[in-house]
Amino acid sequence: MMENLLDDLEAFKTLIHAPPKYIVTFTHKNPDGDAIGSSLGMKGYLETFGHTVRSILPSDYPKLFDFLPGMGDVLIAEYQHDACRNAIKMADMFVCLDFNSLDRMDWLAQEMLEAKKTTVLIDHHIDPEPFADLLFSDTSASSTSELVFHLIDEMGDIERIDLDIAEKLYTGILTDTGSYRFGTSARLFSIASQLKRIGVDDYLLNIRLFNNMTEKQLRLLGHCLANRMEVLDDLSTGIIYLNRNDFKDFSIARGDTEGIVNYILMMRHIRVAVFLTEQNHQIKLSFRSKGSVSVQYLAQKYFHGGGHKNASGGSSRKSLEETIRYLKEILPEFIEKQLKYA
């Protein structure tokens, strides 16, 4: 359940029922569907009270989400430094969504802290840093978009969720659960039912989100499966990696690698999937797992990351080859412990 629900709920009500404010929403760098859906969904909700709301993304987003209303008005800090700084200076309040630590905001974190405005954090990741004045944290939620809906419901404001808001929240839920494969609950399906009742076309959203690959992306997937996949049968683990040359050869842009890690888990005997990409000055790792195997522990203990039981991420400052070698060194003990209790 959400931490500090009653006290912070009343405080939040007081803030948003006050005369119109200038509010800025933030989410994490390399935003995914939940980051975008929860941010724009909250923006739409706050605007029903007459507030002026600007949404800021620390870095660019996958163009897959261009269909969502309002994407053209989002500020991207990576390119729009001055506009973001001006918005932060003008703000009366900040709402942070889908991240638990300030380093996920890049340089925006310092700007936000120096502004010293009331800050609200809405998130479903473990161990949120204590930087917010009001906290709505629920690690049992499938997504921050689910949490935003739940918060609006607890405020007694379901009628304020129009079709635009509903589509944004449903997008966040659909992407963060991998089409209802991860983090599901009875509450989640009840929320999905209510969003569909509002008018969400879940079939169309599925088409837009999961049947929308370009030829380049499909050829990249083929390259990953044919040339960059290693199966460790004795460890029930599969690994896919992409190096700098792959990024150059396929002109890989943000969003092109989304979902590739999930293909490894389509093998019957695989319990753990790892996807590594060689980026500027670091290796990014995405972890997925089946059932009771917790890749959250793997990401948090060994790769400075975290996330959820079946879907987590981390990073390494070693080279790609060294990172893969290190991963293979720690996997036997990790897998043995995990499968022992699976």
Structure description:
This protein has helices at 5-16, 33-47, 81-90, 108-115, 144-154, 163-176, 186-198, 202-210, 215-227, 244-249, 260-264, 295-302, 320-340, and strands spanning 22-26, 52-57, 75-76, 93-97, 118-123, 134-137, 229-232, 237-242, 272-279, 282-289, 306-307, 311-316. The protein is an alpha/beta fold and 342 residues long. Strands 3-2-1-4-5-6 form a six-stranded parallel sheet, sandwiched between helices. It has a six-stranded mixed sheet with strand order 7-8-9-10-12-11. Helix 2 (33-47) runs parallel beside helix 5 (144-154), helix 3 (81-90) packs parallel to helix 4 and helix 5 crosses helix 6 (163-176).
CATH topology of the largest domain: inorganic pyrophosphatase (n-terminal core)
Task: Label the structural class.
Answer: alpha/beta
Radius of gyration: 20 Å
Number of domains: 2
Strand content: 15-25%
- Helix share of residues? 40-55%
Regarding quaternary structure, what we see is single chain
Low-confidence stretches: none
CATH class of the largest domain: Alpha Beta
Largest sheet: 6 strands, parallel
Task: Give, in order, the helices and strands.
Answer: HEHEEHEHEEHHHHHEEHHEEHEEH
The largest beta-sheet arranges its strands as 3-2-1-4-5-6
User: Count the helices. How many?
Assistant: 13
Total number of beta strands: 12
CATH structural architecture of the largest domain: Alpha-Beta Complex
User: What do the pLDDT scores average to?
Assistant: 94
Q: So what's the overall shape?
A: globular
Concise account of the structure shown:
This protein is of the alpha/beta class and 342 residues long.
